[in-house]
């Protein structure tokens, strides 16, 4: 991993942590308010909490640019898809009407402002409580999705460049013989003594016999 890749990696991870924590904090607060009201939580909001929790943990674990951090790019791609689903599900609740949508008035804004405690509530009393938080959830959900997409592309590019430069590791690379240094010479072959073979005469005795003849 080069120096530029490490810097970009850290910037992306920090951005992912910040965006995920913002979304997690906002939707978790809303779920707390809903639980106080004693009503069931929207499944899309629960899915957003789960996705934000996983993303925060993952980005914190891989925020350090160690050598093999880019190998996690498949998980980056998965989290990108999960965040796009979050953004699509939440956006479909309000559509282009945003804070003027019926779902917002009767659910998000109603429980965010704690208006279930107020008897004889009118539309004019509620106003736009929680509109800024709802817009923030949508905005940061989209931003964190883009951050994970860029992380996945960067990781895949780094891994592809490494494999193209060094080549894949094959079984032949592991089983290949280890070359010997010329300075050390070839390793000596161990001599195995066969007990059935006749004992060889000493070298000096053989020389003396030849001289006598």
Q: State Rg.
A: 35 Å
Task: Estimate the mean pLDDT confidence.
Answer: 80
Spell the H/E element sequence.
HHHHHHHH
Q: Which bin fits the share of residues in helices?
A: 55-70%
Separate helix tally: 8
Largest sheet, if any?
none
**Net shape:** elongated
Instruction: Specify the structural class.
Output: mainly alpha
What is the tally of beta strands?
Answer: 0
Runs in which pLDDT lies below 50 for 5 or more consecutive residues are: 169-178, 206-213
What is the CA-CA span between the terminal residues?
79 Å
Instruction: Give the number of domains.
Output: 1
**What percent of residues are in strands?**
under 5%
Account of the protein in words:
- The termini are far apart.
- The protein is 67% helix and 0% strand.
- It has one domain.
- The radius of gyration is 35 Å and the shape is elongated.
- It has eight helices and no strands.
- With 213 residues, the protein is mostly helical.
- The longest helix has 36 residues.
- Its main location: membrane.
- Keywords: Membrane, Transmembrane, Transmembrane helix.
- InterPro entries: Marvel.
- It is found in: Membrane.
- It is a multi-pass membrane protein.
């Amino acid at each position: 991993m080069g120096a530029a890749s490490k810097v970009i990696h850290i910037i992306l991870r920090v951005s992912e942590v910040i965006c995920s924590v913002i979304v997690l904090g906002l939707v978790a607060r809303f779920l707390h308010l809903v639980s106080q009201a004693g009503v069931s939580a929207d499944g899309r909001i629960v899915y957003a909490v789960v996705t934000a929790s996983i993303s925060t943990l993952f980005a914190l674990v891989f925020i350090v640019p160690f050598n093999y951090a880019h190998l996690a790019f498949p998980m980056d791609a998965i989290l990108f898809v999960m965040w796009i689903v979050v953004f699509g599900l939440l956006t479909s609740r309000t559509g282009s009407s945003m804070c003027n949508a019926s779902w917002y008035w009767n659910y998000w804004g109603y429980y965010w402002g704690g208006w279930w405690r107020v008897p004889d509530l009118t539309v004019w009393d509620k106003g736009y409580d929680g509109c800024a938080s709802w817009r923030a959830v949508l905005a940061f959900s989209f931003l964190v999705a883009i951050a994970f997409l860029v992380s996945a592309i960067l990781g895949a590019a780094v891994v592809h460049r490494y494999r193209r430069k060094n080549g894949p590791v094959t079984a032949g690379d592991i089983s290949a013989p280890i070359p010997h240094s010329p300075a050390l010479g070839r390793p000596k072959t161990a001599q195995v003594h066969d007990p059935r073979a006749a004992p060889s005469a000493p070298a000096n005795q053989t020389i003396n016999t030849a001289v006598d003849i």
